[in-house]
Write a structure and sequence with these properties.
Blueprint lengths: L2 H15 L1 H11 L15 H15 L8 E5 L5 H8 L4 E6 L2 H13 L6 E5 L12 E7 L8 H11 E10 L2 E2 L10 H7 L7 H10 L2 E8 L1 H17 L10 H19 L3 E2 L1 E7 L1
Parallel strand pairs: 1-2, 1-4, 2-3, 4-5
Antiparallel strand pairs: 5-9, 6-8, 7-9
Amino acid sequence: MSQQTASVTEIARDYYDSEDADNFYAAIWGGEDIHIGLYDDRRSIKEASRETVLHMARRLRGLKPGARVLDIGSGYGGAARVLAGDFGADVTCLNLSEKENDRNRALTKEQGLADKITVVEGSFEDIPAEDAEFDIVWSQDAILHAGDRRKVLDEVARVLKKGGEFIFTDPMQADTLTDASVLQPIYDRIHLSSLASFAFYRRELEGRGFREIAIEDFTGQLRNHYSRVKAELADRRGQLEGEISAGYIDRMLTGLQHWVDGADNGHLAWGVMHFEKA
């Protein structure tokens, strides 16, 4: 792992292991899913986040009892418990944050799924798995945090069986964006120097022998999500005193608005990307 990749990985780990971040994601997202949701007028953040999981799961042709699934950047393991509990898959959760991993293990045990889900601490730039070990690789809004996204895709290609499926989401820059400097406030907030794009993933995965099954552009949902999270955090600020520091809340509200502004200005993209290893 390069020094730059290691630095980005450590920053992400330190952030998600912090007490403020852990309490924020557990409180605002409900402690199961910590990714962008698919909203309608009736859905809460928790319900919309779970709808993304179900939408992605329904797309997978190979998702059946006994299928081996790797979830990279698994967070609190909400998706893994759906894949294991509702569809009978055997899931390995790979995630940087030990705080999140501990919560994942506890929730998994509570739901009686410890025999179907394994939680592993590690980076998805260096996946601790054998070649061609998995039928499906799954990821939700995690690859943006990688120091070397191409290395992540190399690793996905390595551990996925021939004919296996790779399904994922990622907050990205728009394909039409010509001046990435307009996203600097977002880069500064999440300690990154760039975001990927639909075009990046199409090009890079095709070069690794993947076939595109479908890319669903749900960019409007990115705006919906960050706006809803910002409103929820502002509304519940008083309730969260003592659990989340005022400074963290202030920074988070500012950062969430940057994402809303980026979406409103057409600078960002988000969607469900589904590929098959040829």
